[in-house]
Amino acid sequence: MTERAPCGRAAKRFPPGGLDARRASRATLIILLAPALLLYAAFMLYPVLRTFWNSVHTIKPNNVPAFVGLDNFRELLGHDWVFWKAVGNTAIFAIVATIADVLGGLLLALALFSGAPFVRFLRVVWFTPVLMSYVVVGIIWVWIYDYDWGLANVILRAIGLGSLEQSWLGDPHTALWSVMATHIWKWLGFNMIIFLAALYALPADVLGAAELDNCGWFAKLIHIIIPMLRPTILNLTVLSFVGKMMIFDLVWIMTGGGPLWSTETVSTYVYKRAFDWNTFDLGYPSAIAVLWFLIILAFIFGLTQIMRQRDRLEF
Amino acid sequence: MITRKLAAALLVATGLGWAAVPKAQAEDVTINVWTHEADEDAKVAFRELAAKNLEAAHPDVHVKITWYEKNPLLAALKTALPAGQGPDVLYVEPDWTEYVEAGYLAPLDDLIDWNNIEPWARAVWVVNGKTYGVPQEAYTNEIYYNKDLLKKLGVELPANAQFTQSQFLDLVKKAKAAGITPIAQGVGDRPFPGAYILGEALLRKLGKDDYRKLWTGSLSFEDPRVVDVFKWTKELVDAGAYPKNFMTLKLGESHYYFYTKPGALMLPMGSWYTGRAFVPEDKGGQPKDFPLGVMQYPAMDGGACNQCKTSAVGASFAINSASKHKDIAAEFINAMSTPEMGKRWIETVYLQTGIKADVKSFSGPYAAYFTELMERQKGADYFIGGPRDLTRGECKDSFAQVMNSAFPGGLLSVDQAIKMMNTACFKG
Questions:
Q1: Is the pLDDT of residue A207 over 90?
Q2: Does some domain include residue B159?
Q3: Which residue from A169, B145, B231, B353 puts its CA 20 to 30 A from B59's CA?
Q4: How far is the C-alpha of B113 from the C-alpha of B130, rounded, in Å?
């Protein structure tokens, strides 16, 4: 009796159903939800709605907004070649880096899962870049890519491949790929950890049964492990793809969108038009943001539809 | 019951406390200042001294200076000002024209003591008959060079300190042949230094009027004189004038490259070069015994104005039109703009200024430099403002991408560069 007393007291203070959200009064729910809803409305909903509103206006001098309908979108779609260049760069970045990120992360995770030597050390080394800020990563890699004293060219010269030395970030042909390589280096470890967790969560009896059936390592990978990792692969693919469609920080730090707009992404272009174009008019940059938001939304919707057929997404 | 009594006591105490606040304290005013150039010690000391002077003269006034790097400052201003927020006094530069157009800067004609400001510098900030900024920093575009390296190449600077365009090309080739980087320039973090040579050459070739027309869209980049200058610049580029890491070398690094490691013959730069070079060596400054010289940009063949030179106003200060303390904000700007402070600016920052300052002779460790700099101003015909002050939007972006970066970086032919600039800038 004595041991059960606290429960008894609690039962008296909180009658059955008192803490059940399904039975709480509407007023209680509103009070509890209000802080979060207010924050969401102030920092998410209002900016989004305001961006939509801005996209059909031009803010004229002295801060007077003028309704321009779809003019900003017409200009954007019909005449702005830098925007299309940025779309192309972003698409290449999102597709190539996503594939590399997911495949690379899977390979690293498999290496650790299969019991490669120095597993703990490698896990820490491969995951460390994830913990670094974009600013630090960007600065380190700008140094690595420096023509004169950068590690990339120093290594090429040291192994007799001096003819391949490049101004990696200064040449439009290599700049985007160089930034992409940096981005992949930073995020491989994240995907690796997620895959590793998924691998350790695989049912041991299925893997054991496969071994009893003399299933080889490669066959086990193709026919058992990868199909069972499918939800994780799909989740990481979508998250990675969406993240890269919005890539800004690393590009801004490493190249600022240059040379000759070869690394311009949609996000860097929005920033330039908003803050670096000698204007307070947020109409045009908002139109870019709205259009890109709708495109990303369509991609997410499409991917979700495709994946819903077999797997439930977890993001 | 106890809780209620406690609350009542707190209320009374708070009320009494409120009533007991001295009236003078309630009237204290804090002026907020947002400024760039946190990394330049001499400028920091200069502005903080002005704040202290103002606070000493007006004990009820406090000045709170917030230091920014330029890009974060721009981002902060562009979000704060449209929201009716922001500082009382803000750092501005003449090419930030949008602030005036949007009505975020207060007209200063009746607030500032203009007797202390050079009229040519004030003119930079006059828009539609009203003045919106107080110029503090002024500069000219110069070519800094290493006197010892020039001597080593067996080249003597002409008496007027100005090579012809062919002599300059030969100098670049000689330096390159001797294994010396001719021009230590980089565009890794700035949208303008790569265009110093090309821009100054265009000014001399075209003269002031046509040069202005070029940047304001009424002179085509296909003008034969413009094409000639691009061709000459391309010869410099092809001769290896710029370092291999030109595209990624940052402004601060280009200074270090020039005077320390690996060393270069020349560094075209605004005369605000001193802000980075004249600091202790362990903070990235030039070595004490560095043989620094100043030469003119080369004279162009058939140039309309070979004595022309770009002079521009840099750091300036303005007052937020939403400020509730415009008079006191103006007092702070006035405190930075006295003749004594102007003299102090020259003697500590080693840079020209828009403040009237009666400095007849120079002293201190860099006196010889400043004397040489003033020598290079003799007979100069100034064009006030640079391309970035005169261009906007697509033209300004193309200037940064093409003339500042890709063309001197060797990525574009003359025809490609001309076409891109013309498409972006020429209005027909």
A1: no
A2: yes
A3: B353
A4: 14
Residue B63 has what DSSP assignment?
E
Contacting residues of A for B96, CB less than 8 Å apart: 278
Mutate to test the interface with A, among B77, B181, B248 (most CBs of A within 10 A): B248
Q: Give Cα B425 to chain centroid, integer Å.
A: 23
* Angle between helices A266-275 and A283-308 in degrees, nearest 10: 160
Residues of chain A with CATH 1.10.3720.10: 71-308
CA distance A256 to chain B (A): 8
Q: Is B362 helix (H, G, I), strand (E, B) or coil?
A: coil
Q: What does the longest C-alpha to C-alpha distance in chain B come to?
A: 97
Task: Report the Cα–Cα distance between both ends of chain B, in Å, rounded.
Answer: 84
- Chain B residues touching residue A170 (CB < 8 angstroms): 245-248, 409
pLDDT tens sequence across B153-185: 999 999 999 999 999 999 999 999 999 999 999
Is the ipTM, as predicted for this complex, more than 0.85? no
Taking CA–CA distances from A172, the nearest residue in chain B reads B411
Give the count of alpha carbons within 13 A of B413, CB side only: 3
- B31 with B95, same domain: the answer is yes
Instruction: Tell me, yes or no, whether B89 and B190 share the same domain.
Output: no
Give the domain range for residue B97. Answer: 25-137+314-349
Chain Cα centroid distance, residue B278: 16
Instruction: Report the CATH number at residue B217.
Output: 3.40.190.10
pLDDT digits (tens, 9 = 90+) for A115-140: 888 888 888 999 999 999 999 999 99
How far, in Å, CA of A229 to CA of A199, rounded? Answer: 7
Number of inter-chain CB pairs under 8 A, A vs B: 89
Do B132 and B146 sit in the same domain of this protein? no
Mind listing the pLDDT tens digit for each residue in B3-58? 444 444 444 444 444 444 444 444 789 999 999 988 888 899 999 999 999 999 99
Q: What is the DSSP string of A232-263?
A: HHHHHHHHHHHHHHT--HHHHHHTTT-STTTT
**CATH code, residues A71-308:** 1.10.3720.10
